[in-house]
Every structure is written in structure tokens, then in C-alpha cells.
Amino acid sequence: MRVRTGVRVEGVVQGVGFRPFVHGLATTLGLAGLVGNDAGGVFIEVEGEDDAVDRFLRGLRAPPPLAVIERITTRPLPAEGGGGFAIVGSDAGGRRSALVSFDSATCPACLRELRDPADRRHGYPFVNCTDCGPRFTIVTDVPYDRPNTTMAGFAMCADCAAEYHDPADRRFHAQPVCCPACGPRLVLRDREGRERAGDPIEEARGLLRRGGIVAVKGVGGYHLAATAADRAAVAALRARKHREDKPFAVMAPDLPSVRLLADLEPAEEALLTSAARPIVLLRRRAGAPLAEAVAPGNRSIGVLLPYTPLHHLLVSEPLVMTSGNVSDEPIAYRDEDALARLRDIADAFLTHDRPIHVRTDDSVVRVFQGRELPVRRSRGYVPRPLPVPVGGPAVLACGAELKNTFCLAEGGRAFVSHHIGDLENYETLRAFREGVGHFERLFGIAPAVLAHDLHPEYLSTKYAVERAEERELPLIGVQHHHAHIAACLADNEHAGPVIGVAFDGTGYGADGTLWGGEFLLADLTGFQRAGHLRPVPLPGGATAIREPWRMAAAYGVPATLDVARRNAATWDQVVAVGRAGLGAPPTSSVGRLFDAVAAVLGVRDRINYEGQAAVELEQCADPAEGSAYPVRLDDAGDGGPSFVVPGAELVQAVVDDLLAGTPVPAIAGRFHNAVGDLVVAAAVRLREATGLTTVALSGGVFQNLLLLKRAVTGLEAAGFAVLVHHRVPPNDGGISLGQAAVAIARAATEPAGPAPR
Amino acid sequence: LSHGAGGKATHNLIEAVFMEAFRNPLLEPLEDGATVNGLAFSTDSFVVTPLFFPGGNIGDLAVNGTVNDLAMCGARPRHLSAGFILEEGFPIADLRRITEAMATAAERAGVNIVTGDTKVVQRGKGDGCYINTTGIGVLDRDSTLSVSAAQPGDVVIVSGPIGEHGITIMLARGELDIEADLTSDTAPLSELTAPLLDACPHGRVRFLRDATRGGVATILNELAEASKVSVVLEENAIPVRTAVRGACELLGIDPLYVACEGRMVAVVAEPAADAALAALRSHPLGAEAAVIGRVGADPPGLVLLRTAFGGTRIVDVLVGDPLPRIC
Ligand SMILES: [Fe+3]
Ligand SMILES: [Mg+2]
Ligand SMILES: [Zn+2]
Ligand SMILES: [Zn+2]
């Protein structure tokens, strides 16, 4: 029987070769009809014998590599007769929900062209096709069409136009399609911005070989490159960038060269070679040919593979590829700005004239128990939506202050933004504001509810409050650690309730004090604080975070220890500050407990990047250490299961062991084990009281694999189901997803209240 | 309590309660004092713990505070009233010390205390002594000073090292066993405003404000918002005494938010900057005056701090007590 069926396909279906795929499928099956893009995705009409139409619909389920189908809906149409299958023009009207693709690593077909001397794109650093290339970072508006990308200024030559318009071609409607005749041009500039003579790639490679530092314009911003084995070059990069210890990532040309740097397991290989091409944190091999300054005192090394044709041409031996910035500034992505800000760091600029619209950092991931554990979710992942419960209002969740991301959610999709960074920095705050506007346009979402952290000084909170006042929108404040646990729940598509363990640096508590070692009974709508670390003073507030030795003082370790001697000039004063509670807010943070132990063990007194003391404590711990200090849960005294954890006893155990002459790696190992055991003991106690058997682990402290492994192994052995992060980071980069999930869940249980004030 | 700390909470309180009730054209600009018929008129209440501290006591503060508010309107302070709220049993000897300090401060500032009032409250219902002063000053010059008068290109000057008063008070509470070579900076700023205004052509001094509650940061935020300009500060240019810096580091406090009682912020048109600085420096109170930043057009309403490494940090109004934002 002849039928005509209307089909709507939603998801990442534009600019990924979907229409030619549909065209090919329909033609093969002898079907008539049409296919086109609109703001909602792809619309199709197919007409022919009913079994052929059925086969067509099944065939849609195996789309091209970059396509992600979220939903296919069909409706019967009256048959029209006639033959032929047409690709019709885009329709920009209607509701915008077609999804922009993420930026994707160069595909094998393009790579072959890049290396083929006979191809017209041989050695052309901007080769791409519908299966690969820049997307999110070049899109300025929807629908995804060339005029709405930063390729708008490049008029296609006849050859490229022919490919672009040919449904049978790999480049059919590939918006960034270009070639040496019509596309962007690579140049090498000196510090003054003058173009240097010669082949840019060859010149840049020569500079790198001679120990130079080259700023390289990538997909989401500028990198600073130096030869990773060259001690002097890496040292110079550190000095000029004012980055003292934080590890640099290394771009290796291929997998065999990665294997010389680090040990690889299959899941890590898969991530390294995925279309997202994140930085993967790997176990560094002894004797890896890397300058020590690449990742000082670190057993792991962040490695990534080339993800643009330019990288493929440039990288023939491992290069440090670090973000193009000074100190903690956001990475430079505009050409003028890069030249101005990086001229004292880079010896030359390998750059081009295709603008970057959205600054996007490299993503960072690691593998835990064979699965991905994100550390920073950005290029290659964003803007893939994450699933959240359908229903409820459109939400803008404004995220945290450091490692900020925001999240726009509506209709079951949560768009967690690229890594924005530290909002205290003006450039970053601007990126936040512009990013929010860009996402709202791109995904056609007008937020009806604003979710935010409870910390009144977070610039993200202030943004939410300001905007809520301007637009008379309701605000939903979400406690920081509840947001962490909610992020973990959303990450795992779990509704709770669970036993939530949120360990991080500090977050604003529901009681106005600083939390950070929290055991919550939580679902998406709310939580109960069932246990926490006993608060200690944070002497000097943020200064105590920058100076971990102060936490040793706050935990009351003896003044006879080395840590007190090293800091003798102000030790007594800091102790007094803590005792007086003046300039010393109380905190139940586990991150600060790690700081105290790191300082006591002489690992680190002052940090140069966030979390450094804890990172180095993990690095120095002996992973083979099996024993642990005993942990205790004290009744909170409310007659219920609530408890307080005396962290000072752990610090005391560390001090005793140190004075007994136990080697530092063993002590660090025992301490890690104790914190892991603490998680298990607390979960067991809360299971007895509540019957809950699922535990969610979140917060930046759970980036510590030694701790995570001890906790997860112990919990599983005790019969718990354990949720850890796979899609968003356990650190504050995941907060916005948690806030959004809470806002959606609360809206489902209670109607949103009136606008505040 | 955060409603008195001079930050956003105070601002909201003023807007929501007082402006709502009292709204009128003279109050509207929310300057430190009102100017009526050639006179400047201002009032202030003084609550401080401890009442006596290195470099002064509540009496000096009460006189200088109102003198300074008048001076910031561009006026020559003339007459003050003084109202006392004393807690039952407050030692007469202490009250004498306070009034002596007031007399000395008034004499130095060239003002007379011409009227007053005293109330006694029950024991335990006051912290010993509260003082309110109200002052009248003469506007010798026709003033254009205003919090909304800053223009891009103007320079931002402080009259001396910041934060001494606030840190002195904090340490004088004795909760910390810290000895620091510090005294309050309380002083009559009329001694500086007269030479400053004389040295600059009419209209070139845009704005004056004594950096009391909330410190320099809060004042500049008010300026940025009211004038719809940006203020960009240079971290290295901000004068802070070593002892203040040390105490701030110890306590984790940003000196930009610490109160002063004898320092002012002056915003001056660029061409008059040198003359303004010279005029301030010619007086002992302003010997360490310094240009700390500039007014810009963009981003309006924000105060930014360029750090030593060239980063640009936002110096925002504090909503309440500052707690670390680092996770
Ligand atoms: Fe956190
Ligand atoms: Mg005042
Ligand atoms: Zn390709
Ligand atoms: Zn071309």
C-alpha cells in the first residue's frame, strides 16, 4: 500500500550530514518526498510502499557519526503521488530546539586528504567535513547555517560550493567547508604582530625545536606550545606565564608516542581518540621523555591527541599545550587580545583569520573503574544536552563562583555550559553574561526560574538576584552541597533519595557557616544534614585556603612540630586568630582537613593553585598502604542518627605517627584510607537509620582517586550501590546541573513562589 | 547586624525603609550631607567598641565624623550639636576623657559645639556611650561635588594610607593578642578639602567622600553606580601601611573594605590631577596622598582592580560579612 509519512527528527541533526544521509536512505529505498532543516531539527516527508517506509524509519536509527537523535515522531499524511526526493531549503521560523553540535576532532577521511599530496586540501590546516570540524565555537546564531557562523566572511569558491551543494558529497551543507583557495589562512606572526616570512608551520616547528614558545590558535582559544622534553623551554614557559606548579598538558602526535609517556588502559585509549579529544589524566611512565617542570611532583600526566588539522601538521613530538593566558586569567581567544596579553610569553603566534566566537577550554577527564570521570567538561562535550526529568519551567542555573558553568534546562534537556572559570575575574564574568545570552538564543530557552547558590557574595548569585529583580522571575536558592549531590543524581539519572556524601573545599551552608564535609540524606527536592565534620576555625578566611599551614594551626597541632617552626613568625598569631574566631569563620570542610595534614607532613605550606596541597598529598601517599587510622562518629545529641566527625583525632593520629618516625608516604596513605573508611562508616550508620542503600559521592575532594577508590570499594563491599560522576565533574563545574535538577524537581512538587522583594 | 556594615545590606535598608518614608529632593542624592541655602547640613551617630583606642576615642570620632561629612560637601564646618546616650553607671571620668577629646577635636577643626542633649538608658541597654553629632557648615564656594559627577578619564586619589582606623579598632578589642604599631587615622578632613578645592579650577573636583564604613571599595562602588562609569584601580598604587597590610593578611581582610576616619577619596578631572595631588601632599594629613586608579566608561557600575600580574579582579559591594568564595 502506498503511504506518505511526515517525520520529525530532533537532536543533534544539523550540520552533521543528516540530510544527505536521509536523501541517500530514501533514494536507495525508492521513496519519494523531501527533507529539510528547521529551527526544531529535521523534517522529512517520505512516500512509497508501506514496508519501504518502515525500513526507512528503521534506517534513521543508524545516523552519521556526529548526529545524536533524541526523538523521532511520525504522522500520517495524504499520499501525493509523484516521484523524486528533494532536499529543501532551511526554514528559520518556529521554535528553536535544533541542537548545535560540539566541536569534533578531524575525521579519518579529512586526515587522509590532509596527507595526500594529490588532494586539493593537501596540507591545508582548515580541512573539515560534515563529520568533523569546529561547530559550537564558531556558531553565532541559529539555525546552523554558514551566515550564522564565523565562516560567514569567507565566500566559497566554485569547487567548495559544488561540494557543499551536492547531496552525494561528504561536504554537503558542511557549514565550515573551505579550501586553500577560499578559506582561512594560516600565518605566523612575531611579537609585534608582523607576519613572518616562510611556511608558517615549518617556521613554527623550527622555533619549537630551538626551544621557543609559540602561541597557537586552536578551536576554542590560544594555546602556548613548547617542546615537552626541552627543560629550558618548559622552565621559560612557567616563568613567563607566572604559573609555578600547576601541571601542563602535553599534546602527543599519536597513540604510540602517548605510550612512551604513560601507561594506558583501553578506556583511556578510547577517550584519547574520541571525537571530543579531551585531555586525559594518565599514569606517567617512569623515565617518560618529559621535562620535570611539565608536571612537577605529579605521578599523573595530562595528555591529549591532535584535534585539528593544524595540530596534526604541527605536532611531531610531544608538546606542552597549555592555555594561552597569564596566571589565572581566562584563555585568550580574540586575536588582538591574544597578541596583547601573550606577547611577553610567546616568541611567535601561529594564528589565522577564522574568528572564535565562544572561548572554550580543553576538557579534562580521567578514568575511574573503566569509566569516564570528568574533571573539566568543555570543548568536545559542550553543548551536548544532558537528560533531566521532563516537565517544569525553563531554568537558568547560575552555578558556583570558581570553575563556574551555568546550565539552561527545559523540556528534559539540560545544557551545561562550557567551563567559564573564576567569576571574580572581570573577563570571566563577561564571558558568563555573554555565554548566558548566547545559550538562550542558541537553544531558544527563556528562563522562567533562576537557580543559584546560597553564597550571597558569589557573582553568579548576584547575577541571579539582579536578573530576578529586573524580570520579576522567581529565585530558587540551592545549598552548595545539595547541588553537588543533585548533580551526581542527575549525572546518573537517579531521583534519590540517597545518602549523599559531599566533600569539597568550602561552600555556603544552610546555617550561614562554611560547609565542606557533609553527609546528607537527599533527593532532588531537598536534603537533611545528617552528619558533618566537626567545624574548626578558618584563620584568616580565604588566606587560610591559600596557606594550608594555617589549617594545621587551626587543628591545634603542637607548636613543636616542623610546620610550626617553618611558620614561626606568625604561628602564635594565627592560633590566636583561630581561637578568637575573629576573621576565622568556622568550617566543616574536608578539603581543609587534607590541607592540615599536608602541612603537618611537610608536603605543602602555601599553594599556587586550587587544591594543590591535597593533590600533592595524594601524589605522595603510598597506594600500597593498607592500614588506616580509626574513625569515629560522635552522636550529634539530637536523639537521631545525626553525627559529628572529630577530624582533629585524624590529625592527631597523623601527628603521632609522624613523631613515631613513620615514613610520610605511609602516613599519607593511612590518612586517605581513614577518610575513605569514614565514608563507609557514615553510610552504614545512615543505612541503619533510614534503610537507604544508595550512596552518591560528589564534591571536588572526590577527584582524589586514592580516596575515591577506598570509599567506593568499601561501600560496595558493604553492599551499597554507589553513584559517582560520569558526565559532569564532581567539582564546582557540576554545581549548575545540580541546581537545575533541584529547581526542576521543586517546581514539580510545589508551584514556584512569587518573585522575591 | 550586617545592616550597619556599610555594604549592600545597608544600602537596601536605606532604600527600602528611609527613602520610602522620607523621599524629597534634598535627600534623594544620598550624599553625606544636604546643602540648603548656602549651608551644608549633616548628622551622624557614633557607636564604637572599644570606646577608647590608640589614636583617639569615640569623642574624636564624633566630632571628626560630622566635620568630615560637611567637608565632603565642600563646606567649611562651623557648628555642631552633640547628643549623648549614656548607659546607667557610665564612669564620669570616662565621659570627661570623651568630652575633652571632643573639645580638642572641635578646636582643631574650627567648629563650636553649640547645643546638646543627654539621655541615660538602663544598665545593659547600651554599650556605655553613644554619641550623635549634627553639624552645619558654610558653602563658601558654589559646589558641584556629586557622587554622580565622575566622568571617564578622571583620576581617583586617596588622601593617605587606608585601613588604619578599622584595623586599630579590631586589634584594640583585645581578642587577638597582637601588638601592632598602629593608631586610628581619625582627623578633620576640612584641613585637606579647603586647599584641594582652592588648587583646582571650579568643577574639576568631581566628588569627595570620607572612606568610613565599607572602606574605599564601597565608596567607589557607589560612585561607579551613580555616575554610570567604571573605576579601575591599580593594586600596586594603593597606599597601605605595613602594619595594616600584615594585620589584613593575618585576618584575611581586604584593606579596600576597611574603614578609615581621616582618609578621603577624591575624584578629580585629569588636567587638575597634578595640582590636586600637590595640594594634598602639601599638608601633613595628605603627605602620602596617591593616585590609585582611573574612571573609565566601561563596564559601567563596576569597580575593577588590576592585580600585580595584570589580572582584573572585580571589587564588588559586600552583601554581608565576607566569607571565602573558594570551594
Ligand atoms: Fe564545591
Ligand atoms: Mg559619615
Ligand atoms: Zn572530516
Ligand atoms: Zn574553496
UniProtKB/TrEMBL annotation, chain A:
Catalysed reactions, semicolon-separated: an acyl phosphate + H2O = a carboxylate + phosphate + H(+); C-terminal L-cysteinyl-[HypE protein] + carbamoyl phosphate + ATP + H2O = C-terminal S-carboxamide-L-cysteinyl-[HypE protein] + AMP + phosphate + diphosphate + H(+)
Keywords: Hydrolase, Ligase, Metal-binding, Zinc, Zinc-finger
EC number: 6.2.-.-
Pathway as given in its UniProt record: Protein modification; [NiFe] hydrogenase maturation
Residue span(s) of domain Acylphosphatase-like: 4-89
InterPro entries attached to this UniProt entry: Acylphosphatase-like_dom, Acylphosphatase-like_dom_sf, Acylphosphatase_CS, Carbamoyltrans_HypF-like, Carbamoyltransferase_HypF, DHBP_synth_RibB-like_a/b_dom, HypF_C, HypF_C_2
Active site (record annotation): 19, 37
Location of the YrdC-like domain: 198-380
Protein family: Belongs to the carbamoyltransferase HypF family.
NCBIfam families, alphabetized: hypF
Protein name, as recorded: Carbamoyltransferase
Lineage of source species: Bacteria, Bacillati, Actinomycetota, Actinomycetes, Streptosporangiales
Gene: hypF
